[in-house]
Amino acid sequence: MNLILGLDCGGTKTAAALATLADDASLRFGFDPLAIGYAGPSNPYSLGYEQSFANMLSAIRQAFHQARIPIQPVESIAICMAGAGREEESQRVRAWAVAEGLAKRIHVGDDIALVRWAARWEIGPSESTAHTASSQATESIVTLIAGTGSIACCTDPKGHTERVGGWGYLLGDEGSGFSIGLQGLRSVFAATDQNLPFTQMHQELIAAMHCRTFEELVPTVYRPPLPRAEIAALTPIVLSHVANDPNAREIAEQAVKALSRLVVLALDRAGVRNHPYLLAVSGGLLDTDSQLFRGLKDSLTAQGIEPARIHVVQQPVHGALYLAARQLSNANA
Length: 333
Hints:
Nucleotidyltransferase, domain 5, 5-stranded mixed β-sheet, 14 helices
């Protein structure tokens, strides 16, 4: 049994997908998924490498357990992690994977390429094959992630990729869950400074951070390590009050503008603003029923750059499986 592994290492959770190589290498990108294991976050910038690696191992063990297969080295593994596109981080992750004996072949990359390939997986083999054979000459792919953090990239018809955003919670991540949650908390203190009564949203935000009073928010938010995931998890509270709270409405509108801007910048950097493109989106903020998803579509349409189609990726980790399968295919070529 030729096993492969794909890891999606995010700021909220880690997903590890286990698969077997398909008999027909052209079928569904050459692999058949068996199971997905989940664990806590594994973004080393916010969590540290030691805890990130521990959570990655936990997700891998769970995947093997779900598949009812003994834990063993696989033929190929692809580890997709924020920041891992940089050489220093990539080498550190690769060295860990080698030390753990995870796989014969190891691919380490950033966390955005897997979304593009996962979109192709979920669109389906017939449409993906047709797209690759014909429309690839005219259609670009914009990938947008909006979860705990945010990032976008555009891959032009020739395969060249330009990325924008993804600079982390201090330098970027506009429109992300962390940004929305943080702005919600800031509105609590803005109301205090202006001697305004707290809204229902403010009260729910304070309670969600396990605080009895707004004063307790200060030591709670500033405690090390920064509670990024907890702050990002406040996003549903903020968005649930868009209809009745001007603070929430303004925060949501700013998020839509920020995400729309990422798409526009990605298109511009790739030089394909006036060309048809597929928009592949991922992250907890952009499911088809979300206000941000609808707002993003409306914003792009208003700017005259509506995508030819939009696909909401359901399992980004399938893109990591594709990268693992491709690595093995290239090695055997």
